[in-house]
Amino acid sequence: xxxxxxxxxxxxxxxxxxxxxxxxxxxxxxxxxxxxxxxxxxxxxxxxxxxxxxxxxxxxxxxxxxxxxxxxxxxxxxxxxxxxxxxxxxxxxxxxxxxxxxxxxxxxxxxxxxxxxxxxxxxxxxxxxxxxxxxxxxxxxxxxxxxxxxxxxxxxxxxxxxxxxxxxxxxxxxxxxxxxxxxxxxxxxxxxxxxxxxxxxxxxxxxxxxxxxxxxxxxxxxxxxxxxxxxxxxxxxxxxxxxxxxxxxxxxxxxxxxxxxxxxxxxxxxxxxxxxxxxxxxxxx
Length: 285
Ligand SMILES: Nc1ncnc2c1ncn2[C@@H]1O[C@H](COP(=O)(O)OP(=O)(O)OP(=O)(O)O)[C@@H](O)[C@H]1O
Ligand SMILES: O=P(O)(O)OC[C@H]1O[C@H](OP(=O)(O)OP(=O)(O)O)[C@H](O)[C@@H]1O
Ligand SMILES: [Mg+2]
Hints:
The radius of gyration is 24 Å and the shape is flat. The chain has helices spanning 15-24, 55-61, 71-77, 120-128, 163-167, 191-211, 225-230, 260-269; strands spanning 4-9, 37-39, 45-50, 66-70, 82-86, 92-99, 114-117, 135-138, 154-159, 170-179, 181-185, 213-221, 239-242, 248-256, 273-279. The protein folds into three domains: 4-90 and 180-210, Periplasmic binding protein-like II (D-Maltodextrin-Binding Protein, domain 2), CATH 3.40.190.10; 92-179, D-Maltodextrin-Binding Protein, domain 2; 213-279, Alpha-Beta Plaits (2-Layer Sandwich), CATH 3.30.70.
């Protein structure tokens, strides 16, 4: 059977979460340290460990069929490459920052200014919309230091917590785009591997859905069930089972992880007791 080739970042921010996602999809990869290639024992999949920045070219050439890559890298050098799925990790933004003490009114202030960045296309495309032409200085790493050493007036780089900007006495003035890890697909993928991709994507979706949800159970007196159910935006409708104790029931449902603390308070206020919140491993609609 033909194996689908997936590129995963060799080392860096995406590596661990990418491998965890494949593992949560039930895929076992024998991972010898420093190996550049690995084969899954229970899925027709081969993993190639590559640099994030090199992946768009490998996808374009069909050297790999799919990849887990930062969306920002595709925007910079892979706009011809399709995205099958957003993966919900490595969330960040690509922003312009300037020295904290400088004033900033609008993007026009950056016309003709020297901008240090590893994302020249992203900067130029963004500025083009405003008819502003910056003077790009291409740097591969430690971009945030550039203004402090007199190399640039502004920078464009990845921002997440903002602590790197803060440490370098910079402030964020324009958010150009938001990014997260994505599953990208080669335009040259074969129909056989498209089937493998569909199978993998089905599993990924089940894992991602489960990560966003919690299973909750609670007990409630029967006269409170109606009010409680109104609070529960479940998958379909909640399961209600009678308890051994007369007049009481157990209510089960799935709720979104993000909203569950607020819902929990409201459920208690409506008379729910013995609430349990349980992680879900996989969720298929
Ligand atoms: N501070 C951050 N917080 C969240 N996500 C980030 C952060 N920095 C980078 N990322 C995301 O992770 C991806 C990989 O970043 P990382 O710094 O590990 O690799 P890189 O140096 O850009 O690439 P390469 O693998 O080519 O060396 C980035 O393209 C971006 O999508
Ligand atoms: O807003 P923050 O949370 O501080 O994150 C932003 C920093 O993270 C990334 O660098 P990384 O740590 O990946 O180092 P690198 O330059 O070696 O890639 C990015 O290039 C920024 O410098
Ligand atoms: Mg980095």
